[in-house]
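Q: I have two molecules that I believe assemble together. Could you output structure tokens for the complex as a whole instead of separate predictions?
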Amino acid sequence: MKALKSLVIGAALLGSLASAAAQAQEQFVALPSYRVGPYASGGSGFYGGIIDYFNLVNASGGVNGVKIAWEECETEYNPSRGVECYERLKTSHGGATLVEPLSTGIAYGILDRIPQDKIPMTMLGYGRSDAANGKVFPYVFPLISSYWSQAAAMIKYLGDKNGGVAKLKGKKIVHLYHDSAFGKEPLPVLEALAAQHGFELIKIPVAPPGSEQQAQWLQIRQARPDHVILWGWGVMNSVAIKTAQRNGFPREKILGVWWAGSEEDTVPSGDAAKGYTAMSFNTPGNYPVLDNIRKTVYAGGKGNLQDQSRIGSVYHMRGVTAGILFVEAMRTAQAKFGKGKPVTGEQLRWGLENLNIDAARQKEIGATNMFPTVKTSCEDHEGSGAVKVQQWDGKKWVPITPNWIVGDRALVRKLVEESSNKYAEEKKITPACMK
Amino acid sequence: MFYREAGQFKTSYEADGQILPIRQDRIALIATIALALLVLPTFATPYMLSAILIPFLIFSLAALGLNILTGYAGQLSLGTAAFMAVGAFSAWNFVARVPGIPMLLAFVLGGLCAAAVGIAFGLPSLRIRGFYLAASTLATQFFVVWCLTKITWLTGGSASGVITAQKIEILGYAFDTPERKYVLVLVVVALMALLAKNMVRSNVGRSWMAVRDMDVAAEVIGFRLMRTKLLAFAVSSFYCGVAGALYAFAYLGTVEPEAYNLDLSFRILFMIIIGGVGSILGSFLGAAFIVLLPVFLNILAHSLSLPTSVASNLELMVFGSLIIFFLIVEPHGLARLWQIGKEKLRLWPFPH
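A: Yes, here they are, computed for all two components at once.
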């Protein structure tokens, strides 16, 4: 009996030693996620995608032998809970080296804390747009594309559709937006472009959450606009699509923001959504990397999504994209600071600032053309700014722009400089590149 | 045995009228304050301080504000978050627009602005009461948030309406670490709680309670209803305003209209219902329940390594059932439970 007991204790000790040794070889990522609450459909798909890709990388031996560890903490998309989660996660597993909250509110709440804690934060496709300036925001990465780049690309696309941006003169464009920080973020770009190209911008706010839009669409019908930009989130999107149908407004003329372009927005609208277009920084379709996830992760029972038909859906694919960018940043950082061992938050920051995912690298990952090529630098924490337009054909999203669209980069850059320098002045930061 | 007042005689009116007449209570309170002020900042982890204790204290202060209005003066309000927003945004504007203004003065001015808004929206209380008043204070909630999203001057011309709070600096001393922020919040909250306790014991508090219990009778015996009710609104909004400023400056670090939504008003209302309506201690207990319990349940579910989606829903279920349980066991809140426990201990071992 005694021998058995000591054997058990010995084994437990050995086990804990082994796990401690394994822990030293782990790269820890903090995921303040949300899987309950009003935005659960977006959160579960996005974080499910990240975790699926991490599992795929870990199954094939990790990043040069370094396994990725992560921990989730439920924020319910609530800034106060999110700050608590960040504080909890940042010290667990020996310290977080990356954080992605997927919420503007939470991101703003921890914006001042991350440079102190030396933990880089990514904001994949959401504000704040001026964080693209790495001289002022060394630890913030609005990767792939910010709201401002998206707004500029929207106008470029609408211009091309009319036969060149010059043809936009005298046209009417409605900006129907979620009346919050998120909806108002693109206004500086849209206003500047309206002044430049001479189209009329009609701004119509929708009070959150946006479940009632009768008055707004009446206003739109009276204004007879040529295009409607739908800058919505959550329940607002399907209500907008359905109300547009009831008012007889053609859905082909509505162009949604990328948070208004997922299956969760169109499926509940039924037939009304057919022909609706939306922006995206992912090309819908199937890719080898998704097949790998199905084959390795889900067949092995380690898949994160309960509903396997959601693999490859818009939010899931966005999560996989985020996972790819994180892993590539780890690889880049390891190439400089030593392969085969985890990197610190500061080193990972360097990795994110020196990302270079070109077409060849995308092919190796199995994600050719799934997202635009990303090349970051200190001046440009966005790394791309390119987007696509997709259309709902009644069953699935299909890309309708074969090439990636880039809007007026010079204008966006000018606004980024102005806004970030204002922030630096307020916060008494001297803009400079970090080594 | 440990909690008996045998031998504690009071020989003067001052001794009889002090805040804590029992010696054990005084010792316990001094020990708690000493622990909170001296021990915690050195030994608590930054996570404990910045993610648990600071929000707990700030929400306690907001609950205290609402408790003055609802618990003591009997005026229902659903506009707590709006008053917090007024406090936060006006404090931000004072710091941004008046060069060299002391931070604490900005907090006080923020509170005063909230008090002014409180008086304006307290005017309907002269004609209506109960649920009707609750519905009219709901207007504050919508009006203030609407103002903050529409009038860009209030948010410093920021395109998105989200502004980052300035650094807290008092007399050249920067409150930038979790420990320092915690001490600042603790001192402000402790002083204001002491002030509130004294206020509700004075004739101001008695006039509030008279109005709460029966306003017609109170008017007949000579209380001026208008002054009493509006004073309650002003004091309550002042507390909420300071809490809002602290929430923005010492906790979130950003000021955003969305952070002060109706949901926050409801949460603070639940805090005083669960903690105890009409009790200073109840505000703290209620805030602890609403702020700390979900975090605790979340950590617990995590340590059991449940899948996150299950853990989150389980957390909501347990939290909800605990609220129902507590309110069935003691509808007067946690403060009343605590009071009953204390009374039992004082009689122990000879209950009657």
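A: One point stands out. Confidence is low (pLDDT under 50) at residues 1-23 of chain A.
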